[in-house]
Write a structure and sequence with these properties.
The structure is a single chain. The protein has about 290 residues and is of the alpha/beta class. About 60% of the residues lie in helices and about 10% in strands.
Length: about 290
């Protein structure tokens, strides 16, 4: 099979998340090509191997990025539980599939991160990542408000917490990433006042402590830096693409299959982030490597 056909199959399977049977049907009715499921899998493996060096380049770029988002979701390899991670910024999407959900997974990719920012939810893993890599954190306010709203449905006293946090975030956003130190300090004072309130239920107390004490310094970095978002939507959108693939394939059958998927998904989603044609860019890179 020619390179263009192989890349088309890769894009249909990974870029558009089509099942193998639909790809076979499309190739038959559109091009009168009869291709087996095994041949499609071989195409994916062959193209993924060709992009091994480019995947390493993406690892380096995300490591050097000043700001990146991170998120993770459950994955299966041969019926065993794993985790699919994404590290992403405005230009690079890096997918990683590993057995663990601890800090060592992103830390192995990121290494020393002195002063660089990782945007994430409140998973404790990222606190350990901060300790071991020197990164700074920006906590996702969408997650914070989602959790506080859910808490308010169960505990009446949590309604005050939700309303106050919602108001604080609205004010922080109003500065359009240009807040002064004084304005940030006033935002922190409002957070401190929430922490000083008295609550009866342990779940509310635990949540308030997490937001207002544990993550106090990780709430408003976005208010003063245009490169830092106050939410983790970028990573969540990237994860949703993997979730679609998971629903179709139920994960991977082997470790090698997982490595091929993380490579191809990283390559295609990176080109899409950059506003480039994935098919043309993949062709250009492979042809350049053959010269």
């Amino acid at each position: 099979f020619g390179l263009r056909l192989m890349l088309l199959v890769v894009f249909l399977k990974i870029g558009l998340a089509l099942p193998v049977e639909k790809i076979k049907f499309l190739l038959k009715v559109q091009y009168n090509l009869t291709i087996s499921s095994g041949e499609i899998i071989k195409m994916l493996k062959q193209v993924a191997k060709a992009f091994g060096p480019y995947y390493k380049e993406l690892e380096h770029k995300i490591k050097e990025a000043k700001v990146k988002h991170s998120d993770e979701t459950g994955w299966r390899i041969n019926g065993k539980n794993h985790w699919l991670w994404v590290l992403i910024n405005k230009e690079v999407a890096l997918y990683i599939i590993r057995r663990k959900r601890n800090y060592k997974v992103p830390a192995k990719i990121l290494g020393e991160q002195d002063g660089n920012v990782v945007i994430s939810d409140r998973l404790p893993t990222y606190n350990n990542l901060e300790k071991h890599t020197g990164c700074l954190q920006q906590k996702c306010w969408v997650h914070i408000l989602r959790d506080s709203k859910d808490l308010s449905k169960h505990y009446k006293e949590a309604k005050t917490v939700h309303q106050r946090l919602k108001s604080v975030y609205k004010q922080a956003k109003s500065y359009n990433h240009k807040a002064t130190d004084e304005q940030v300090n006033k935002l922190l004072e409002r957070i401190d006042r929430i922490y000083q309130l008295k609550f009866e239920h342990s779940e509310v107390i635990k949540f308030v402590k997490s937001i207002c004490k544990t993550h106090r310094e990780n709430l408003f970095r976005f208010a003063q830096d245009t490169e830092i978002d106050g939410d983790n939507n970028r990573a969540e959108r990237a994860i949703r693409k993997a979730v679609i693939i998971r629903k179709i394939s139920s994960g991977n059958r082997s470790e090698n299959g997982a490595r091929f998927l993380e490579t191809l998904l990283s390559v295609i989603e990176t080109f899409k982030l950059q506003g480039k044609n994935p098919l043309e860019e993949m062709k250009n890179i492979i042809q350049a490597s053959d010269r």
